[in-house]
Design brief:
mainly alpha, single chain, 43% helix, Lysozyme
Length: 315
């Protein structure tokens, strides 16, 4: 009746309906194709990297092998080292398996992955070194000498509502990127799903956890309104106009700003900053990438801190 009222025969109405179904079908197929293209491929590469677009790249153990780890930290098991037998390649790779699916060492292809590993270990090596000017092999060879602060000057306990200090527990520096203060142990412990607030000693007893705590800090912002060290290094972070005016730009220099703020940055070419840069470039050389690939914005000498510190809370 409807077709008769519109002046169409039943046959022509059926043809119009069929055409409409065909158009709808084609539209749905095309939409499905666009959606399929928009979904990026994920990969599984065994225990080390699963279910992530980043797992489709070479993983850390593909380009950073045991002999390179030994070269970078050649003095870590010397008799005078303070953590003999603690740090090892296997613990590093096991720890990284948690973060490679999130892009740690797997973002941007092989060269960027190697550079990120060198950058991360540059911080680790400089913060755990017991090398000195006339040390055998030079001071840069002494990374991973410590796994905890040797002579704490305080307990690093601060009043905090979310992460109150556990009675009898001290929160001095521990780990591959030494963690200080109760609230930092609490934040990182929550992120790792490990009770570091009540048991900070885990970071000096378990090398995998010691590396993981450092990687968690590398991959996550520790303070509001600032990026992660990972994002500023691999180029995921886009600086605002205020960042640019504050001379905060993507690169290795900004990783120091994220991790240490005004303890190191914005003070000119101080020794503490130069030491971290030297470790990064030394490791680039030993990994075969070369310091010529250090990238732009290598230092943070003139960078304003993301978050000025009110006490020694950023490490």
């Amino acid at each position: 009746m409807a077709s008769a009222m519109s002046g169409q025969s039943p046959a022509s109405a059926a043809a119009v309906a069929a055409a409409a179904v065909l158009v709808l079908t084609v539209a749905l197929v095309l939409a499905g194709g666009v959606e399929a293209k928009s979904k990026q491929k994920t990969c599984d590469k065994g225990w080390e990297c699963k279910g992530s677009i980043y797992c489709c790249n070479e993983t850390i153990s593909d380009f950073f092998q045991v002999y390179q780890f030994e070269n970078l930290f050649s003095k870590r098991n010397s008799p005078i080292a303070h953590a003999v037998g603690f740090w090892d390649y296997h613990s590093f790779i096991v720890a990284s398996s948690e973060y490679q699916p999130l892009g740690f060492g797997t973002t941007g292809g092989k060269e960027m992955g190697m550079k990120e590993v060198a950058a991360f270990l540059g911080h680790v090596g400089s913060k755990t070194s017991c090398g000195y000017g006339v040390a055998t092999g030079g001071p840069l060879a002494w990374g991973l000498c410590y796994n905890h602060e040797m002579s704490p000057s305080q307990s690093y306990c601060s009043q905090d509502y979310l992460y109150p200090c556990t009675p009898g527990v001290d929160y001095f520096g521990r780990g591959a990127l030494p963690v200080y203060w109760n609230y930092n142990y609490g934040i990182i412990g929550d992120g790792m799903k490990v009770d570091l607030l009540n048991h900070p000693e885990y970071l000096e007893q378990n090398a995998t956890l010691a590396f993981q705590s450092a990687m968690w800090r590398w991959m996550n912002p520790m303070k509001k309104k600032q990026p992660s060290a990972h994002d500023v290094f691999v180029g995921n972070w886009k600086p605002t106009k205020n960042d640019t005016l504050s001379k905060r730009l993507p690169g290795f220099g900004a990783t120091m700003n994220v991790l240490y703020g005004d303890q190191i940055c914005g003070q000119g070419f101080v020794d503490s900053m130069n030491n971290i840069i030297s470790h990064f470039q030394y490791y680039l050389d030993l990994m075969g990438v070369g310091r010529q690939s250090s990238g732009d914005n290598l230092d943070c000498a003139e960078q304003e801190p993301f978050n000025p510190s009110y006490h020694d809370a950023s490490t």
